[in-house]
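Recall the central idea of this unit: under ordinary conditions, the amino acid sequence of a chain determines the structure it adopts. In this exercise we apply that idea directly, starting from the sequence alone.
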Amino acid sequence: MATTGRRHLVRDFNHFITCYLCRGYLIKPTTVTECLHTFCKSCIVQHFEESNDCPKCGIQVHETNPLEMLRLDNTLEEIIFKLVPGLREKEEQQELEFWRKNQPKENGQAATESLRCQKFGAGGDGGDDDADAGGNDDYHRSDPQIAICLDCLRNTGQSGENTVTDLMKRFIRCSSRVTVGTIKKFLSLKLKLPSSYELDVLCNGEIMGKDHTLEFIYMTRWRLHGENTYPMVLEYRPRIDFG
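Accordingly, the structure predicted from this sequence is:
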């Protein structure tokens, strides 16, 4: 005689798919790599503004910057969306409404920079807010993020003059998958450089290849050399012709 297995309800899995902080379903589930506890991204980021400890187990996540120890769990997010009917659509609608209500005004410079950085993180140029050079609507928002500082090195360039200047805003936050090539494109557009003008991007005095990602540079050039400061500092200068 065949037996029918017990039918599981969504609430049977609530312990695994709800956030310890807000008690709601995990939205953009983000895991603390030190202890593997998972929370909503917005919940844990807000928590780390006040504390460096995991809110669930109390372990110190990082002495100075716990945000470095966060990783998005896209697999868990997909599982939650499959378990909870309508959750994905509800969240997408709420996000659209949020951005619609918070469009940058003339004096909303911070909001404008935030939107530009998100587009820059996808390989966009950080130019017009309506432009998307990457052709991707999510702007890599689900990627691990990294904060960097872009400093200008005072060197004479290809024309014998220092045509490269400091950025008005040197600190940006973007996807860790952004490449040096994209950084150069971003700098060229922000500094209004001619298309033929070449830049070098350096970390700790070493010129970085155009295909190096920020994550690769952080792991192999910044952290590996004992740099404990945050954000990571990249320097740029006119390309020097040794010929």
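The longest helix spans residues 87-101.
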